[in-house]
Amino acid sequence: MQNTYDNISWLSLFPELSDLDLHAKDLLAKYVRIVEAPIGTIGYREGTPCGAYVMRLAGKSRVYKMSTGGREILLYRVAAGETCVITTTCLLGNSDYPASTIVEEPIRDALIPAAAFHQLMIDSATFRKFVMTNYGALISDLIVLLDEVAFHSLDARLAKVLLDVKSPQITRTHQQIADELGTAREVVSRQLKRLEQKGAVSLGRGQLEIIERSTLEKLANS
């Protein structure tokens, strides 16, 4: 029996599933696939069908929406120990992906095929609670993003993005920051230049350094 469950040892990364019954574990042991992908891999594209529930074991990817003009806005990131809200939405609603994702750090995922996912949702109260709890938390994060985009100024959102990086040294281009904010590179460059003139940051090629966090904190909370 131990050998049967060797391929679901990854469940230890999700303590909420520690009480899964034997039937649920049997389904996972039988159907789950472990996949890996390097940086730059496209996990899924907008408009493509969803075939599996994703449980992230290692690494990180970003989920983003692309406008018809080619402008990108970050929706959220999926890191180790997390699931993907858009994947959950597509599986529950039998719909195609409304956004795309790309790997930022090498990932390792446990993929539960759609048929097994739906069976687990019916048969296992523990699994069902795990899925819906994570789904609710991620929806709340998306509502926060909507609030920021709709009601917060760009300089406040930029300050928050910079503060989210714990290190004072940020290795990120103006274009990458613009993609995260869903705006043009030129706009971000102007905002960063203003921050540099205020003494809040120091700009370099492909990187910047936070000099005065307090200035950014005031902007982020404005």
From TrEMBL:
rRNA-binding is among the record's keywords: no
Any Pfam family: HTH_Crp_2
Entry superkingdom: Bacteria
GO molecular function: DNA binding; DNA-binding transcription factor activity
UniProt cross-references to InterPro entries, sorted A to Z: cNMP-bd_dom_sf, Env_Response_Regulators, HTH_CRP, RmlC-like_jellyroll, WH-like_DNA-bd_sf, WH_DNA-bd_sf
Any GO CC annotation of this UniProt entry: cytosol
Keywords: DNA-binding, Transcription, Transcription regulation
Residue span(s) of domain HTH crp-type: 152-214
PANTHER family: CRP FAMILY TRANSCRIPTIONAL REGULATORY PROTEIN, HTH-TYPE TRANSCRIPTIONAL REGULATOR ARCR
Protein name: Putative transcriptional regulator, Crp/Fnr family
Organism in which the protein naturally occurs: Methylotenera versatilis (strain 301)
